[in-house]
UniProtKB/TrEMBL annotation:
<dbReference type="GO" id="GO:0004867">
    <property type="term" value="F:serine-type endopeptidase inhibitor activity"/>
</dbReference>
<feature type="signal peptide">
    <location>
        <begin position="1"/>
        <end position="20"/>
    </location>
</feature>
<keyword id="KW-0722">Serine protease inhibitor</keyword>
<dbReference type="InterPro" id="IPR002919">
    <property type="entry name" value="TIL_dom"/>
</dbReference>
<dbReference type="InterPro" id="IPR036084">
    <property type="entry name" value="Ser_inhib-like_sf"/>
</dbReference>
<keyword id="KW-0646">Protease inhibitor</keyword>
<protein>
    <submittedName>
        <fullName>TIL domain-containing protein</fullName>
    </submittedName>
</protein>
<feature type="domain" description="TIL">
    <location>
        <begin position="30"/>
        <end position="85"/>
    </location>
</feature>
<dbReference type="Pfam" id="PF01826">
    <property type="entry name" value="TIL"/>
</dbReference>
<keyword id="KW-0732">Signal</keyword>
Length: 156
């Protein structure tokens, strides 16, 4: 009888192991002092940036700095403590090819050419109402164009 009981217990243990759900492995795609968010701010704090900003309520998913940390620069991908931020002008990257290039709002200069700023959100707009059109207004915080619907109010 003890042999039958042993077989039964081994069978139950193997069944439990076979049907057990494995624990998901947490893969953190973010760097040090960062965490992933499904809906984070489009205006993250960064070194030498403005202390208070008026930011739109849109959100984006991605990596964001932990509490007490800010991005090392505007559009940066590393988080540092505020007291570790370089003073304005220190170690600022200079792109010689961009010295004389002027890009429109929402673009940045890289290697002498204007490209879309990857930090600017992209918008999928529905058609405007009759008599209206979208006009890009520049967000003063991140210099990105934001489409705003403008309607003709004249009574012709």
């Amino acid at each position: 009888m003890s042999f039958t009981l042993s077989i039964f217990l081994v069978t139950m243990a193997l069944t439990a192991i076979a049907f057990a759900k494995p624990k998901p492995i947490a893969i953190d795609p973010c760097g040090e002092n960062m965490h992933f968010k499904e809906c984070g701010t489009t205006c993250p704090a960064y070194c030498n940036g403005p202390e208070s900003v008026m930011c739109n309520k849109m959100c984006k998913n991605g990596c964001f700095c932990d509490d007490g940390f800010v991005l090392d620069r505007k559009g940066g991908d590393a988080c540092v403590r505020i007291d570790q931020c370089p003073k304005s002008g220190d170690n600022e990257e200079k792109d010689e090819k961009c010295a004389l290039v002027r890009c429109v709002a929402g673009d940045v200069c890289r290697d002498g050419e204007c490209i879309r700023n990857p930090d600017c959100p992209m918008f999928m707009m529905s058609p405007p109402k009759e008599g209206c059109k979208y006009v890009d207004e520049i967000d003063p915080v991140n210099d990105c164009p934001v489409p705003v619907e403008h309607c003709d109010t004249s009574d012709n």
